[in-house]
Structure formats: structure tokens, C-alpha cells
Design a protein that fits this description.
The protein is an alpha/beta fold. Helix content is 44%, strand content 13%. The protein is elongated, with a radius of gyration of 17 Å.
């Protein structure tokens, strides 16, 4: 059990929503516009987690050198955003136990925030479309501040917004980015094993526990 927890910060992609199919289709449409062949779903998943800019750079870095990536990056990002606006949420689904877990956390009186590295222009429509938005008092995206996960800036701002000490807040995520951001902020951290951890085992991540679902996470969190 994690006692004395009054706030929860939950990641989006790979933690609450399985969005890989949306991103995979978007990446391949972008690559086709650039005259490049398609990537596999597994390759696309391995690139998810550090924001859209990183995803685009890695997706074209398969074919181009680092210097060539930078030359083509602006065009590629524009194409990515165009296609993602069209497809965002079309194939996204909530993982098992997500809605039940969020409801259980709300019933415990926990303050709740969603912090993602996805840009806000994509985050809010996606959360609305999948019925997640109303669970959260605060939502911050990858472009809400100057830095994003694994930097602790977003998490520290949530703690400030809630008027809570970081030790009273637990972050829940699927990757090392979430763990590193939480540790740097001084928050507790729980990880789910089913998301997008850049191809690495979640068991290798510094965490206070691995939970099979957000509902299991809710059972581990106690405000007292």
C-alpha cells in the first residue's frame, strides 16, 4: 500500500489508452508523403513516449542521417500533425480497468491530473473522444511548459496546483520517462506493464510497484 497519497498524476498513451494504431497509421502516411516506405507497428511502438517531435525524428531517422533528419524535420512534423489531426482517436481504446480505476480514485477523494508528452492540441480531443477528460481536474501536455517528462517540471507544477507536497502524490505510467520524472519530482511512482517503454522491460524501471491495471493501482493508494 501507498499511504498518505492525496493526488494522482496519470500518463495517457500506453497507460490509459492504446494509441499505437493511430500513431502507426499517422507515421506511415507522413512517410509516404516523404516518399518513404511503411514501418511496422512494432517499430512505431518503440518510438512512442517522448513526444511528437521525438517520434517524428525517430520515424524518419530510420532512413536518414542525423543531419538529414534535421533538414527534413520541419516538413515531416507538419505532415505528421496534419495526418494526426485527421486520425487522432479513431482507433484508440482504453486499456482494461482504466475507467473503473479512475472512478475508484475519484471516490477516494484523490486529486487527479493527467500529464502526457503529447501536445495539448491532440491530448484534449483524444481524452474527450475516449471519455477520460471529466476524471481530471488538470491536464498538461508536452507543450504546456518548456520541458516535459522525464524532466519533473510538469509534475512539480501539478503538486503546486494541488497544494500538495510531492511525497503526497503518486505518478502512474508505462515507461522509464514516468519513473524518472516522478523520482526527480519526489513523487511516488507506479508502473503498468502493458504500455510503450521503448522496447525495454518495465521490470528494469525504478518504481514503487508494477500494477496490472489502474484499478489495481487504485486499490494500492490510500489517502490516510
Amino acid at each position: 500500500m501507498l499511504y498518505g497519497i492525496r493526488g494522482v498524476i496519470v500518463d495517457l498513451d500506453g497507460t490509459m489508452l492504446h494509441t499505437a494504431q493511430d500513431l502507426h497509421i499517422t507515421i506511415n502516411r507522413m512517410r509516404a508523403d516523404l516518399g518513404l516506405g511503411p514501418l511496422t507497428l512494432e517499430t512505431a511502438i518503440s518510438f512512442v513516449g517522448k513526444g511528437a517531435e521525438n517520434l517524428v525524428r525517430l520515424s524518419i531517422g530510420v532512413d536518414f542521417s542525423a543531419s538529414e533528419v534535421e533538414l527534413r524535420f520541419k516538413e515531416a512534423l507538419t505532415l505528421f500533425e496534419k495526418h494526426y489531426f485527421d486520425i487522432n482517436g479513431e482507433f484508440a481504446t482504453a486499456y482494461p480497468g482504466v475507467h473503473e480505476g479512475l472512478q475508484a480514485m475519484r471516490e477516494k477523494g484523490l486529486r487527479m491530473a493527467c500529464v502526457t508528452n503529447k501536445p495539448m492540441a491532440f491530448t484534449l480531443p483524444l481524452m474527450e473522444k475516449t471519455g477520460l477528460r471529466d476524471y481530471f481536474e488538470i491536464v498538461y501536455g508536452g507543450d504546456s511548459f518548456a520541458k516535459k517528462k522525464p524532466d519533473p517540471m510538469q509534475l512539480l507544477q501539478v503538486c503546486k496546483d494541488f497544494g500538495l507536497h510531492p511525497s503526497e502524490v503518486v505518478a502512474i505510467g508505462d515507461s522509464i520517462n514516468d519513473s524518472q520524472a516522478a523520482r526527480a519530482a519526489g513523487c511516488k511512482v507506479l508502473n503498468v506493464p502493458y504500455g510503450y517503454n521503448h522496447g525495454h522491460a518495465i521490470q528494469d524501471v525504478d518504481t514503487d510497484g508494477i500494477v496490472s491495471s489502474l484499478l489495481d493501482a487504485a486499490h494500492l493508494i490510500s489517502p490516510t
